[in-house]
Design goal:
With 149 residues, the protein is an alpha/beta fold. The chain has helices spanning 13-23, 36-46, 62-72, 89-97, 111-128, 135-148, and strands at 5-9, 29-33, 50-53, 79-83, 103-106. It is built from six helices and five strands.
Length: 149
């Protein structure tokens, strides 16, 4: 997917390198960060199409980073967590429901499933072709319609 950019965030340089090596053959531009705060700044500046990140990050926890990215992008930038510490279905469930992440993998991860998930999310993102309105704008529009009606 030429032209698509992903931000890979992990405190461990080997993990960043391993993930980058998985996605370079896909034609993606790879951005990297080693802590949550740097990742958030890079997200704001570079506007990646997807963020792939460890949950445990220095300077800004991964779950907090995920919440910020999902909120700032209004859910248009998928966040995928790949973690070695938070194991079990309850962490996955919380990440998917409370933090709005698009997918969740535990280390060691199945590389094929991870690549397939990321590429599917990037394809889905590209298929909309337009930005959806903010929820507040929809509520305001509907409220105005109800007043007229």
């Amino acid at each position: 997917m030429p032209g698509r950019r992903i931000l890979i965030v992990d405190y461990d340089a080997r993990s960043v390198d391993a993930l980058a090596a998985l996605f370079k053959p896909c034609g993606l531009e790879i951005l990297t960060a080693s802590d949550g705060l740097s990742a958030y700044e890079m997200f704001q500046l570079e506007k990646p199409d997807l963020v792939l990140m460890e949950a445990i990050l220095p300077r800004l926890h991964g779950f907090d980073l995920a919440k910020r990215i999902v909120a700032d992008s209004r859910g248009t930038v998928p966040v995928v967590i790949v973690t070695g510490l938070y194991r079990g279905p309850h962490y996955r469930h919380e990440a998917l429901t409370a933090f709005g992440v698009a997918d969740y993998f535990e280390k060691p991860y199945d590389a094929e499933k991870l690549v397939r998930s990321v590429m599917d999310l990037l394809r889905e993102k590209g298929e909309t072709g337009f930005d959806l309105p903010a929820p507040e704008a929809v509520i305001d529009f509907l409220a105005a319609r109800l007043k007229k009606g």
